[in-house]
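LOG
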Amino acid sequence: MNKILIASHGHLASGIQSSLEILTGMGNKVTVIDAYVDDHDYVPDIKKFIEELDGQTGIIFTDLFGGSVNQKVMLEVANQENVYVITGMNLPIVLSVVLENEAINKTKLEELIAASQVQLVEEPKEDTDLSDDSFLE
């Protein structure tokens, strides 16, 4: 099983957790850190998550590459072979990892990340069939 931590500035982490709960009922499968919403020092929470992995694979999502939350996570995971950090997170990648039934490795993470990239959605052309039947094709 994979253990998942979502850490962000503000309430983004708990917002993603809320979305996970609404979409899958699996919001309780992730640990969240909402940093800088009060005076709480969140570094011990990161350490606790890593200590409790107990040989399991850990995936930590952060909101911003190079941001303070990401920096503190990176300091704590140094020399941890069973922990992966994904930064610039979005709901699709978190969903993909939460719903993954198999153990996660680097190759699998790269596949999930590629499939979860942001996309530009353009308005359909005038002659495009927008019926429900064509949507599923």
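LOG (cont.) second protein
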Amino acid sequence: MNKFEKNVQSKNNDVIDAGLAFVVGFVALAVIYIIPQIFAIVAG
């Protein structure tokens, strides 16, 4: 066992971190899509 395995900075589950990153990215892209749609509906 090397020194990096003994002194772990984060003990979080990687699946939870990956899922959270996916959700945050999905929400960001959804907002980028939704905002122009709102402007198109209001202007139209």
